[in-house]
Automatic annotation (TrEMBL), chains A, B:
Similarity comment: family membership: Belongs to the class-V pyridoxal-phosphate-dependent aminotransferase family.
Residues that bind substrate: R337
GO process terms (BP): glycine biosynthetic process, by transamination of glyoxylate
UniProt cross-references to Gene3D superfamilies, sorted A to Z: Aspartate Aminotransferase, domain 1 (3.90.1150.10), Type I PLP-dependent aspartate aminotransferase-like (Major domain) (3.40.640.10)
Superkingdom of the organism of origin: Bacteria
Molecular-function GO term, any one: L-serine-pyruvate transaminase activity
UniProt lineage: Bacteria, Bacillati, Bacillota, Bacilli, Bacillales
Cofactor: pyridoxal 5'-phosphate
Protein name: Aspartate aminotransferase-like enzyme
Length: 384, 384
């Protein structure tokens, strides 16, 4: 197998387009130079439509988790109370970050695979007027659930004065998001998902409401102090050394995103989701999420013991050069997840489904070759 | 001018070797895959000789500052006392990080351009037995001083029970460093200097003494919690998503470092320092640092008002495609700094000196063309 033909279909990191790789080969430049300053300010500006905001978007050298932590440490103090919506591993991460800082995290938990509904949140907030922030996960990567953040935001606004802080890491750039209009106060994402970049950058925007809290809040952190990033961006620079080569890549990935257009990108991801789900259903495998809350970026399947998902993944990788993801947390070894996000097209979905069918056959599962492919084709042919 | 022939001679980021750029073009892989796990563990292992340690080296997705903060937040608690050796902007940064966490930072300050001597430190520690950590900067990037960390470490050991925590960002990989033998407890560096990589990775190693403190210390941070990195490395992985493409680059830069050999790399940097200093002196310009404490990676020059260093830098950049650095902090606009670090050879120094001479002439400074070049040649010719 050609190592460079590896088919990476995990929910991040996602494949890097050749144009973006090429852009990252730009000779190194000084991070305090005029050239870099212009590049940095312009790329930050061009991220705004992806967030659906008029606010500045800050770019951090770090993993998505660094920006999740920024959302906590810049808004809350020890003993403050927060509600954390936990529908999987990344909701749980928000809760753990809160607890690390001595913040009281009330977990609104739903079974993994379910979404947190507006009704659940409204009821949960009823007796918690003291809560200063509500943390939500837009796409819960560990289950493939797209939580209804638009409706959740509305509930937060109606039922409390809390800030609404959202992890958009594994969907922003592939789903609709109107941060300002919906009333999201802090929104975070990472580079290695729908933005088609390597890992290493995190992004964050904050509402005017959030900035009032942030400016009044003495963040204990230095590297993650949002006020330093705001002050520096006003001077067209960064407080600490930025990840220069990734910013060159970001410029090119934004070119690609603007050429295709966000509405079209969102439709492409919905199509890939629908193809994947149709194929999985045609193969008789149980999807983990309801149609209504199915993420356009990742699909989770729980074979419920019919076969070993880890054996399936090994076969896909070893025999077909295709990589999909396994389960996280208590679902480790029990489910598999197919990423269809970023530099990925409908025909790529057909390829993965085809390899999936063959691998299922090879591990002795009950499957008829071509069934899933046909179902995916039927979805696709109506769109092209 | 060819944009891709930009000559970047600042003290970081430094130019990326084509081999390293090529390596970073490796197709993206999953960060939890066996392939990446092997790559990550092996590259971390190969960093040990650069640190001069048998301890594990941790790789963080972030700027150097994130790892400086790790050195603080994992070892100290609010109200603890620390001594911070401040010989320039980066010593000052250590002090500011301490203060952000409510740590009492006793600054042992020397004029910018001077080194902190063992005698000064010994006297300063005399009446401070309560100090829990001493923070030092190996190469102070803002002045080009190489502080005598080996001797400073000895003083810390003799005069106190404090941990000795060192910022090696702008020299590690280009100077001798024997972390274990000298008694450094935490040592930090970044990717964009002598390691010839883009910005975006930070590195940290800790002694057994330091680990006792770290394990007993409740770090308030999540992303910068060293215990999480230690636990994950034992499982051959990282706690949060690593910067995958930079790790592919690191593997190749380590190949280059091992092919040339650390002793030879150190000699090359000393030679480039000696050439640069000889040229600057031949041109009658005042060096900022004494020979004894001159860093092999960056040389600072203070024209003391004879001409405007910013005008010099503009001319170098605009007419000759050469970028050097200006001053930081109170030296902004008053000095210039030439980086000679990483992917840089003696002939590159000649080029920069030549462009420097012409630019000096072009801004009307009193200089005879060729004087500096000749002095640099004389140093070089005795070495090849």
């Amino acid at each position: 197998m050609f190592a460079d033909k590896l088919i990476l279909r995990i929910p991040g990191p996602t494949p890097i387009p050749p144009r973006v790789q090429q852009a990252m080969n730009h000779p190194m430049v000084g991070h305090r130079s005029g050239l870099f300053s212009n590049l940095f300010v312009k790329t930050a500006e061009r991220l705004k439509p992806i967030f659906g905001t008029e606010q500045d978007v800050y770019i951090i050298a770090g993993s998505g988790t660094s920006a999740l932590e920024m959302g906590v440490v810049n808004t809350l103090q020890p003993q403050d109370e927060a509600v954390v919506l936990v529908s999987g591993a990344f909701g749980e991460r928000f809760a753990k970050i809160c607890e690390r800082y001595g913040i009281i995290a009330h977990r609104l938990e739903v079974p993994w695979g379910d979404a947190v509904t507006p009704e659940l949140l409204a009821a949960y907030l009823q007796d918690k007027p003291q809560v200063k922030a509500v943390f939500a996960t837009y796409c819960e990567t560990s289950t493939g659930v797209l939580n209804p953040v638009r409706e959740l935001a509305q509930v937060v606004r109606e039922k409390s004065d809390a800030l609404f802080i959202v992890d958009g890491v594994s969907c922003l750039g592939a789903v609709e998001c109107q941060m300002d209009e919906w009333g999201i106060d802090i929104l975070v994402t990472g580079s290695q998902k729908a933005l088609m970049l390597p890992t290493g950058l995190a992004f964050l925007a904050a509402s005017e409401r959030a900035w009032k809290v942030i400016e009044a809040n003495q963040a204990p952190s230095f590297y993650l102090d949002l006020r330093a990033y705001r002050k520096s961006l006003a001077d067209r620079t960064t407080p600490y050394t930025p990840a220069v080569s990734l910013i060159f890549g970001l410029e090119e990935s934004l070119n690609m995103i603007e050429e295709e257009g966000l509405p079209q990108i969102i439709k492409r991801h919905e199509l890939m989701r629908d193809m994947t789900r149709a194929a999985i259903q045609a193969l008789g495998l149980p999807l983990m999420t309801a149609d209504r809350y199915a993420a356009p970026t990742v699909t989770s399947v729980n074979p419920q013991g019919a076969f070993d998902p880890e054996q399936l993944r090994k076969t896909l990788n070893g025999k077909h050069n295709v990589v999909i993801a396994g389960g996280q947390g208590h679902l480790k070894g029990k489910i598999f997840r197919i990423g269809h996000m970023g530099y990925c097209e409908p025909l790529d979905v057909i390829t993965v489904i085809s390899a999936l069918e063959m691998s299922l056959k090879q591990i002795g599962a009950d499957v008829e070759l071509g069934t899933g492919v046909k179902a995916a084709q039927e979805v696709l042919i109506n769109h092209v």
